[in-house]
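queue> pop job 88
queue> type: inverse folding (structure -> sequence)
queue> payload:
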C-alpha cells in the first residue's frame, strides 16, 4: 500500500499491521527477557489505542505520523535477528514502511534536519564508530553537524 494520499483510516490500518508483526516477534523472541515483554505489550497496546481511538483533534495523518515514528524508532535503531525479521515481514506484506538509516541519511544530506535526528546521532555516533559502521572522518563530520544543529537551535 502506498504511503501517499492515504486517509487516516488506511494509514492507521497500515500501522496496525506493523504493530501486529512487532507483537508476534516480541512474543516469540528469545533475545528479549520475559520480564520485559509486558512492557512491550503495554507500549504496543497504547499505539493501537491511539491509532484507532484518537481524540478528534488528533485524527489527522500528521498526528499518525508521530505514532509511526514512535513505534518504528526501536525497529529502525535496533539490530539483530528480531529486527531483521520485522523488516523482512514488513516488506513481504508490502506494508509501506522501510528501515531508515539515520546516520547514512545525515552524512548524505550533510546536515541534521530535526531534533529526532540530532538525538539519534548523539546517542549513536560513538557506538557506530566503535562498531566500524562509520569511519573516524565520518564521525568527525557528524560531530560538526551536531555543532551546527546546536548553534541553529540557540535563541538570539
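queue> result:
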Amino acid at each position: 500500500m502506498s504511503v501517499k494520499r492515504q486517509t487516516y483510516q488506511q494509514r492507521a490500518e497500515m500501522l496496525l499491521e506493523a504493530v501486529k508483526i512487532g507483537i508476534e516477534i516480541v512474543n516469540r523472541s528469545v533475545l528479549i527477557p520475559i520480564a520485559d515483554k509486558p512492557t512491550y505489550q503495554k507500549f504496543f497496546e497504547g499505539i493501537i489505542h491511539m491509532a484507532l481511538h484518537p481524540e478528534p483533534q488528533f485524527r489527522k495523518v500528521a498526528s499518525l505520523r508521530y505514532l509511526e515514528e514512535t513505534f518504528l524508532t526501536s525497529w529502525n535503531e535496533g539490530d539483530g535477528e528480531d529486527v531483521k525479521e520485522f523488516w523482512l515481514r514488513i516488506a513481504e506484506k508490502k506494508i509501506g514502511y522501510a528501515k531508515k538509516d539515520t546516520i547514512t541519511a545525515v552524512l548524505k544530506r550533510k546536515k541534521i534536519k530535526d531534533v529526532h535526528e540530532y538525538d539519534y546521532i548523539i546517542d549513536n555516533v560513538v557506538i557506530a564508530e566503535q562498531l566500524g559502521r562509520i569511519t573516524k572522518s565520518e564521525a568527525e563530520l557528524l560531530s560538526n553537524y551536531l555543532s551546527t544543529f546546536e548553534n541553529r537551535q540557540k535563541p538570539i
